[in-house]
Automatic annotation (TrEMBL):
Keyword Ligase: no
Originating organism: Sphingobacterium wenxiniae
GO annotation, cellular component aspect: plasma membrane
Protein's name according to its UniProt entry: Choline/glycine/proline betaine transport protein
PANTHER family hit by this protein: HIGH-AFFINITY CHOLINE TRANSPORT PROTEIN, HIGH-AFFINITY CHOLINE TRANSPORT PROTEIN-RELATED
InterPro entries named among the record's database cross-references: BCCT_CS, BCCT_transptr
Length: 671
């Protein structure tokens, strides 16, 4: 009998098959007919940029304004996860990973090249050298600042919110749940994920291709490699993709996090090196002035379409619109990765960190490198760096030649680019596998390896054939429809957040009867005394138990099946009513402790307390709302408290708009 070998896979056929057909098809066309494909795609891209550039301008503007509104709004305290969830990663690791994934190689590739290209651009040739230097810094800030991170922030926030708050799969399809409901599980959801997977693959492939060229150029400058022929690029790709696969297989908690932390430290060292040994006073002054100019010109830059300035319109298409399209095309990849590492953060914390911290670092980085290059070009190099503005692959290394310890700085630069390459590739493999598997919790390692191999093969094929530019155009074209999809993300978020806040802040019924004042002497005694653990356990085992058992019996008489659950460690008891269609109703009481302040321990007008801890019974609920101290409740008052929560539960579950929060089907999808 023949043995059938079955390869275990978590790939979704509805996503992976059409994605691979489209990806491989476009890459083959770009490799076999590079000139034809490039001309065709470039023509389509130009039509979009010239005639529909306002779509990008308005979309990015809305993204920025919406996130700023969320940061200062009443929704800012909503947590990306359960109300009691904590961040998975430390703040430093979190910032390091989102920064490495968000900008990566581009930060090294354009830090000198972009300011120098603006500075030497013929469009601004009529201005003085000082004005051209100011404009170069301003436009670089504009392209790498808040607008770029707002694009990533919209996708990352939408994914994190619906995945961790609504407990849906970490997939772009989940962001449409308020609009499409269960249709996200079918063809609509597959279409969204196919689009995201293709866009992610194209963006990573082109970026890594350009990164390989820059690494090759740096190694040639240092005489480590004799040239920049294709064989050397194959060698570089083979080594770096192998490292990326090893990092990706080890997981986000190990490979990606460790490399990101190493990279951010290396980047800071290189930054300080250039700042201290470069024109320090000029850099600090220009940074200060640049921040002020950026703030003053923020709204003017945001809404400017250059429609009245024909001489700068082509520059506007080639830079600003291209950047907005590029960031949008990268947003599925970066957004998914940011969402993956942001569980437990509040919306305010997420938005503030994503918009402000990377932006500020980008401004410092671009000032130190870009303004140093402009200063050297004007005062030392006699325009030599301006002449190299069109060759960004080599410009960074030529710039370093005007600093001391050039060789050491160049080695460090190459090391940083390599780590950026590896972190971009390994997080890209992780994200693509997540999309292709509909966020399966555990996938076989061969799938991750397969994505790495596919990236390497297609990137090398395009490098050899000269088809990277065509693929870049394809990436930018996909940004137009995805910008509209992102606007729908905002509609979904607004709908979901309003329901979220209403759900958790729904007050109790007006029929709730407050404490009547009966047994006031016993309550006064409880208020002025501190409880030990034994008394709390006794309260739960007597008062709470009696109340729940009596409630269970009365529910049973009214044809409602209720169950009383007992647990240890921590000591707690629950009254649970199970349902098939909606989430279960749950009211529990558990023992909690808190530290008593030292000044209160020394207060003579209060009873003595042993140690510095007091214990109390605290309520908790099935929907993670914050509970409260119930130690002053009598049995009947506790019964009344359970019933008012049950009445609230019945009212909320009867409203159709709360389906996203109360549907047990939603929770089953995540188990």
């Amino acid at each position: 009998m023949k043995k059938t070998v079955r390869i275990r896979t978590t790939l979704s056929k509805g996503v992976i098959v059409p994605s691979l057909i489209f990806i491989v098809g476009i890459c083959l066309l770009s490799a076999i007919f590079p000139s034809l494909t490039e001309d065709l795609l470039s023509a389509i891209k130009d039509i979009i940029f010239v005639n529909l550039n306002y779509v990008y301008v308005w979309s990015v503007t809305i993204f920025v304004l919406f996130l700023v509104y969320l940061m200062f709004s009443k929704y800012g305290n909503i947590r990306l996860g359960r109300n009691d969830s904590k961040p998975t990663y430390s703040f430093f690791s979190w910032i390091s990973m989102l920064f490495a994934a968000g900008m990566g190689i581009g930060l090294m590739y354009f830090s000198v090249a972009e300011p120098m290209q603006h500075y030497s651009n013929e469009v601004f040739s009529g201005n003085t050298a000082v004005q051209r230097a100011k404009d170069a810094q301003l436009y670089t800030f504009f392209h790498w600042g808040i607008h770029a991170w707002a694009i990533y922030g919209i996708v990352g926030l939408s994914l994190a919110y619906f995945a961790y708050r609504y407990r849906l799969p970490l997939s772009l399809r989940s962001c449409f749940y308020p609009l499409l409901k269960d249709k996200i599980k079918g063809k609509w959801g597959n279409t969204i994920d196919v689009f995201a997977l293709c866009s992610t693959f194209f963006g990573i492939t082109t970026t890594l291709g350009f990164g390989v060229v820059q690494i090759n150029s740096g190694l040639e400058t240092l005489n480590i490699l004799p040239g920049t022929s294709f064989i050397y690029q194959v060698l570089i790709v083979g080594v770096l993709v192998s490292l990326s696969i090893i990092s990706a297989v080890s997981g986000v908690d190990k490979g990606v996090r460790i490399l990101s932390n190493i990279n951010i430290v290396s980047v800071v060292i290189l930054l300080l090196f250039v700042l201290i040994l470069g024109p320090t006073v000029y850099l600090i002054g220009s940074f200060t002035e640049g921040i002020g100019t950026y703030i003053n010109e923020f709204f003017s830059l945001t809404f400017n379409t250059h429609v009245y300035e024909e001489n700068t319109q082509q520059w506007f298409y080639d830079w600003t619109i291209l950047y907005w399209a590029w960031w949008i095309s990268w947003s599925p990849y970066v957004g998914l990765f940011i969402a993956k590492i942001s569980k437990g953060r509040t919306i305010r914390e997420f938005v503030a960190a994503v918009l402000i911290i990377p932006t500020l670092f980008n401004f410092i980085w671009m000032t130190v490198f870009g303004n140093s290059a402009i200063w050297f070009d004007a005062n030392v190099a006699d325009g030599a760096l301006s002449q190299l503005a069109g060759n960004p692959d080599a410009l960074m290394f030529r710039f370093l030649e005007y600093l001391p310890l050039t060789e050491i700085a160049s080695f460090l630069t190459i090391a940083i680019i390599i780590i950026f390459f590896v972190t971009s590739a390994d997080s890209g493999m992780f994200v693509m596998n997540s999309i292709a598997t509909k966020n399966a919790p555990i996938s076989p390692k061969w799938q991750t390896i397969g994505w790495g191999v596919l990236l390497a093969v297609l990137a090398l094929m395009l490098l050899n054939a000269g088809g990277l530019t065509a693929l870049q155009s394809m990436t930018l074209i996909t940004a137009l429809p995805f910008s509209l999809i992102m606007l729908l993300f905002i509609v979904s978020l607004i709908k979901a957040l309003s329901i979220d806040r209403s759900y958790y802040e729904r007050d109790f019924s007006a029929t709730t009867i407050p404490w009547s004042g009966e047994f006031w002497k016993e309550r006064l005694k409880q208020i002025v005394s501190f409880s030990d653990k034994k008394s709390v356990v006794g309260f739960i085992d007597t008062t709470v138990r009696d109340a729940f058992v009596e409630l269970q019996e009365e529910f049973s008489r009214n044809d409602v099946e209720a169950k009383v659950n007992f647990y240890e460690n921590p000591h707690r008891i629950e009254l649970e009513i199970k349902y098939d269609v909606v989430n279960n109703f749950l009211y529990g009481v558990k023992g909690e402790s808190r530290i008593v302040s030292d000044y209160l321990l020394n207060e003579e007008n209060l009873p003595d307390i042993e140690g510095n801890q007091t214990f109390f019974p605290k309520s908790y609920f099935g929907d993670d709302r914050e509970g409260y101290d119930v130690r002053f409740f009598t049995k009947n008052e506790l019964i009344s408290d359970v019933l008012k929560h049950y009445e609230r539960f019945i009212e909320i579950t009867s409203e159709e708009r709360n389906e996203m929060f109360i549907s047990s089907n939603t929770n089953r999808r995540l188990r």
